[in-house]
Design a protein that fits this description.
It contains nine helices and eight strands. The chain has helices spanning 20-32, 54-70, 82-91, 108-115, 140-157, 177-183, 205-211, 220-232, 243-256, and strands spanning 2-5, 38-41, 75-78, 95-98, 118-122, 165-168, 198-199, 237-238. Helix 1 packs across helix 2 (54-70) and helix 2 (54-70) runs parallel beside helix 3 (82-91).
């Protein structure tokens, strides 16, 4: 899953694709480099990020979604807002990736149930403005699994078919370096929920802290290592900025780890 943030303030690529034309070009490049789908967002959810109004969010993402979907690309919209979900699906998105796991907007579950689209529910406590204060866990893999189980049950109860739901452990969301490093090797626990697992570790702050690399754009090697740990633990999809490097790494990893017969 190639990350395409049409924002001025995302932690890694904020400001790179402020206009639709540059974002569309970047999306096409990622697809050519081997991305299977694109995750397009118009609101930064980095720690402390300001809230973006849905109309501003839609102005950023809808032209990009429409143009890339028209080429046949599989597009996911990264949003917490029901109105943006509905508009993005109408523009051609096939997947909704909600970092709030349907907590942020009370209307979101109904929109997704009616649309019968694919949904990604991510683990987070609080919201981007206060999540850094909510990092107290016991067994973090068990806690994240239990909290995601509640969100999956909520979604199913709202009419979203379980087979349309994927989960994301939310690396870096309400989790610091210690929590991320404890969670990644234990992600296999989440498999008991029976949902495909999407994992995003790409260029995140804990990789910079561990490696000493301050520039997010130079964290591809660390991101790939962390991503491969997630794959070993059962991740079905990696959400990444560095598409060709990750594709190459996955090809080699798969060759070294053929499916057991």
């Amino acid at each position: 899953m190639g990350v395409l943030n049409v924002t001025p303030d995302s932690f890694s690529d904020g400001g790179r694709y402020r206009d639709a034309a540059s974002a569309i070009e970047a999306g096409r490049l990622m697809l050519g480099q081997g991305a299977d789908l694109l995750d397009i967002g118009g609101e930064s959810t980095r720690p402390g990020a300001p809230v973006v109004a849905p109309d501003a969010e839609q102005a950023r993402v809808l032209p990009v979604i429409a143009a890339l979907a028209a080429t046949g690309a599989v597009v996911s919209v990264d949003t917490r807002n029901a109105s943006t979900m509905a508009a993005a699906l109408a523009a051609g998105a096939r997947i909704v990736n909600d970092v709030s796991a349907l907590r942020h907007d009370p209307a979101a579950a109904g929109v997704l149930a009616a649309a019968a689209c694919q949904v990604i529910l991510m683990h987070m406590r609080g919201d981007p403005t206060d999540m850094t204060t909510r990092k107290a866990y016991g067994d973090i893999a068990e806690d994240v699994t239990d909290e995601l189980a509640e969100r999956v049950a909520f979604a199913v109860g709202a009419g979203i078919a379980r087979e349309r739901i994927a989960i994301d452990p939310g690396i870096g969301f309400a989790k610091g370096m210690a929590e991320n490093l404890a969670l990644l090797p234990g992600l296999s626990v989440l498999r008991r929920l029976g949902c495909p697992m999407v994992v995003g570790v790409s260029r995140k702050g804990f990789i910079g802290l561990v490696s000493g690399e301050a520039d997010p754009a130079k964290r591809a090697p660390g991101s790939i290592v962390a991503g491969l740990v997630a794959v070993q633990q059962g991740a079905s999809m990696l959400r990444v900025h560095d598409v060709p490097e990750t594709v190459q790494a996955l090809k080699v990893w798969r060759a070294l780890n053929p499916p057991s017969t």
